[in-house]
Protein: Transposase
Amino acid sequence: MKSSKFSPTQISKILQEFESGKDINAIIREHGVSKATFYKWRQRYGGMEASELKKIKALEEENAKLKRMYADLALELDMAKYIIEKKL
Structure:
């Protein structure tokens, strides 16, 4: 997964600019963000503080790591079952 070039505090500040009434076109032009990315951030992180945003990012990274670990273990288990079946 590609990591964001924006830190959680930067994302929070960008969303706060929008909430304070700044025009969306000016925000995306100033920060170099696409409209789709901005709206995705707003949907996921709208109304959150920077500290909450950091916690969520850390949890998402940990979840991705655990999913990769599970996939590796499931693959190893399938390989072990296949080898055992061939020997019997």
